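Entry:
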Amino acid sequence: MQRPMSNYGCQFRSVDSPVHRLGAGMKLLIGMLLSAAAVLSQGPWSLGIVLALNLLYYFSARLTLADFWQDTRYLLVQMLIIIGLYAIRYGFPEGLGPSLRVSLQIALFFIPGVVFLRTTQASQMMSGLRKILPYRIAFLVFTSFRFVPLFAREIREIVMAQKLRGARLSFRDLLNPGNWKDTFHCLMIPLLVRALKTADEAALSAKSRGFGIRPERTYYDEHLFPEVPADGIRGNK
């Protein structure tokens, strides 16, 4: 049964797809290869091939265009910033081509990680990382991955609250480099404060649950167990 689509990007979607059936380690390997290809690609043809591979990988996970928009819309902001910086440094239109190339490379580097978050359960992610990393480092990497949707939600809430206070954080406002100082003072600083608070709460939560007392732990995987009806009784015909 497919879960309803979330209003936030980069969150796990429980659907049956070829990408979902891959192991966490294999998805990490594919993601690293695609991200490395994005960094190494410089020409339009090579970037076009990497873009096609990323889109094939993304939509093979049975994710929709609406999901793609939710996952990548924040990249438009960094694209505008990069274009503005290149225009200031090299002029327009001389800086347009290089700025678009860099923006596309950043997006292509980011997309494989989105697919990993969208298609990998927390238990699969942790157990997969545990095979190649020490337990504590695996927990740190896993926690970093799982905080991506949380901070996407935090950014949205901060932007909504600051816009009500008069901050110039709308898409149209960001087209003007003179408004970018509001992005730093009204968005980045509150986000940093929330990140520090969240990290402290996560550390206290892990400590209260006895993190690190044992060298190994078990993981619950809901896909390994049949679905139980709401009344708790599975009838046999």
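The chain has two domains: 1-132, 134-212.
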